[in-house]
Structure formats: C-alpha cells, structure tokens
Amino acid sequence: MIERALALDPQSTEAQSQLAHFLSGRVLTATTDSAPADLARAEGLVDEALVASPRYAFAHFVKGQVLRAQRRWEEATAEYEAAIALNRNLAGALSGLAWCKLNAGSIEQVIPLAEQAIRLSPRDPLIGVRYYQIGIVHLLQSHTDKAVAWLETARSAMPTQPNVRGHLASAYALKGDSERAAAKLAEARRLSAGNLFTTIAHLKAYPNAPKIHALYEATYFAGLRKAGMSEECPLPPVCRDPELPCIDENNQSAS
Question: Would you state the pLDDT for residue 232?
C-alpha cells in the first residue's frame, strides 16, 4: 500500500519515510533476504524526505533506524536525538536511542531512556522491547534477580521473541537454577530461525563496543555456558541482530 501511495505521489515525504521505515525495519528484525538492497533503498528514500522536509521528526527517526541497521551508532544517535528534539513524544526514537547507547558502551543511559519511553506510551503494543532493554542492562550489571523480573515481564509481553528467552536462560543459570535455564534455552532455540542459539560463536558474531563486549562475556555468555550452550561452531557464524530478530522493533504508530 505504501508503494502504491509513493507511485501516486513520488514526492510525498510521508510515503518516502514510511517505506524507508519498513525497509529498515526488515533489516533490523532480520526478516529479509535482501538486506543490502533494502538498506540502500531506505537510505535513498529517507534522504530525499529530509532534503524536502528537514524538520520532519519521523524522517529523522527513520534515518536513525537506517544508520543503526548499518551499525553506525554515533550517527544514528544524532538522528534519534534530532527526532526527539522535534517531537518529544516519539517513544520509538527513545527506544532506538537506547539501543545505540547500549551498543556504543553508554550502558548507564539505557534504563532512563527505556523508562521514559514506557511513561510516554504505557499501552504501546511493543512495550516489551523497553522491558527487554531494562532486563539486559540489569543482566550485564550482574543484578540477576532484577534481570529475571524484567526479562520475565518482557517474555509475557513478547511471547514469541527468542532472544528474551536466551537472556532468561543466562540469568537463571547465573542464579543457579539450571533446570529453568535449560528450559529457557530450549525455548529460545525452538523459537529462533536458523541456528542462532546453537553455539556461543554464533552470538558473538555481532559487533559492539569493547566495554559492552566484556560485560556480555562476564554475564550473558557465562550464563549461557552454564545453561549448556557449547562454545565453538562448526559452521561460519550467522550474523543476526541480537536485539529483536523476530518482531518489528519499530513502533509504527508513534515511531
């Protein structure tokens, strides 16, 4: 439908931005087999929109999504911040900014951003994303009980999301609850496409700041080892985004 809208009005900044939104969303959620082409088209569309309407908050948000899909954390951060400055009610931009802060190493800023997004949109259909972000931070900070509580809340809000189960498996293992850890790991494997949760090597095939990598090594990966995940992979790693591979992280109503 958005393609049809764009065909009727090729200069529509809203149609350009919405199509770029969905194309970048497919890449962020790993639900496309044409990621390079999708990102290239999304970038072209949103750049056109921003040239025509440089103060269009949603277009800045979408540009942030494109840049985040390209792992360009600092540039994405600037676009999310521009979107928020123009429209402080963009909860999705706050959530995207939180992912950038996490991956760039500014872990202390993640929970305040997620909490602000929750306050702005307490009935958001994707509120589980924000619960998940808070749970990840508590896990990385070795606040295991808090991590379990937030991740269980995220699991209830996003019952088909495998990475939430993976983080829960790690958290339960670190608590010494091996039975629940093994069960959550099995659920993560069942829910995920491909072989993402077969080995630690697959999960490590994702770039982030050295500080965050060290925290993941000491907590998340350590817990998964305790839960029974093996270390090495006999096949080349499948680089999947560990943020949200099975849901659309983009808030299509307010983002």
Answer: 73
Q: How high is the pLDDT of residue 92?
A: 95
What percent of the chain shows pLDDT beyond 70?
88
In order, the DSSP letters of the chain are -HHHHHHH-TT-HHHHHHHHHHHHHHHHTT--S-HHHHHHHHHHHHHHHHHH-TT-HHHHHHHHHHHHHTT-HHHHHHHHHHHHHH-TT-HHHHHHHHHHHHHHT-GGGHHHHHHHHHHH-TT-TTHHHHHHHHHHHHHHTT-HHHHHHHHHHHHHH-TT-HHHHHHHHHHHHHHT-HHHHHHHHHHHHHHSSTTTTSBHHHHT-S---HHHHHHHHHTHHHHHHHHT-BS--SS------SS-TTS--S-TTT-
Whether the CB-CB separation of 148 and 172 falls below 8 Å is answered with yes
This prediction has a pTM of 0.86
For 168-224, the pLDDT digits (tens) are 999 999 999 999 999 999 999 998 866 678 888 878 766 677 888 899 999 999 999
What is the chain's mean pLDDT, rounded? 89
Q: Domain 106-255 in CATH: superfamily?
A: Tetratricopeptide repeat domain (1.25.40.10)
Retrieve residue 77's tokens. Answer: 């951060």
> In the chain, which residues fall in CATH 1.25.40.10?
2-88, 106-255
- Is the domain spanning 2-88 CATH 1.25.40.10? The answer is yes
Q: Do residues 83 and 60 make contact, with C-beta atoms less than 8 angstroms apart?
A: yes
- Alpha-carbon distance of 26 to 3, in angstroms, equals 15
Tokens of 243: 């943020």
> What local confidence, expressed as pLDDT, does residue 248 receive?
37
